[in-house]
Amino acid sequence: MKNKITVSALLALFPLTVNAYVDNIYGNGGVETQAFSTEAEAISAANIEMENLKEMSPEELAFTLRTPHKNLKYNSVEIVDTEVKTREKDGQFKGFVDVEYRFARINK
Known about the structure:
The protein is an alpha+beta fold. Helix content is 38%, strand content 46%. Residues 1-20 form the signal peptide.
């Protein structure tokens, strides 16, 4: 009798576990540097930021890059590609690290 109750309880919970699945999502975002007077300084600062991003753990990347924090698998964030760019406004240059990344989210 105990076995039947245990099996019934497990079967009752089975639909709840089947409905949860993992989405692998690609994102695009980045990190911007402070303003500099020359484009070379902005690129140099952006290169440093890029190296810092590459050294971060997946958990740190989850809070640095734009990711949905609800149902996010924090250890799944990984960088796919990076590109250093500059932006100019009013004679000031800002470095920008354009980041393409991938992460997983659990949907219930």
